[in-house]
Amino acid sequence: MIWSAAALGIALLAAYVLHARRQSHPVLQLRLFRTRTFSISVGGGFITRLGFGGMPFLLPLLYQVGMGFPPWLAGLLTMPSALAAIGMKVISRVILARFGHRAVLAANTVLLGINIMIFSRVGPGTPFYGIILLSFLQGFFASMQFTAMNSLTYADIDNREASPASSIASTAQQMALSFGVASASLVAGFFLGGIEQAQSDAFVGGLHKTFFVLGAFTILSSLLFRPLKEGDGANVSHYRPKA
To answer: Which of 124, 139, 210, 221 is the 20 to 30 Å CA partner of 147?
Structure first.
């Protein structure tokens, strides 16, 4: 059933591409992908979000089912991530101006993946301050990642094409988050198959393997930003490439 739905989705996407090429004013202007920075930011962002998008699904399972925390406590443990994301918005402009989009995306994607993998060490007995620190770093790296990708999306897009570019970028982001939850559930289902919730140790172990796989996938997605040039996005980040 899952593979049938996936095949149907791919077929529909292919059908739309063929349809859009025959239209003078399609809903999604696929010709925008000819712009290198736009295609890298949207495509790379989609793949990166596949790894990170499953975290809101996996963390409640870890905290409530695996570690036995009540829902209110599991919710509180995710708050540092939101606070860090707000704080990062304040300094992300300075970081991009100092290092540029290419260096930031190459390094931050790896750091985000490592952060996801470290959640494979969280389990019963893990100090609360350790969980809070990991949650804070998760929000920090994720906010930096999304700010860099979103700003690069429009770096070389003409003002007249900003609206269709926004439509494609927003659609890709929403699809990536949905696919991220689906991917996380498939990986978790593979490792948790046959394990009862009452088997807390085995359940946590399966989730740990899931975090490790998603983190490794996120790290590999950093390769998609390698084609960026040092000066890409400098018009929006005010980064000054080295001579």
So the answer is: 210
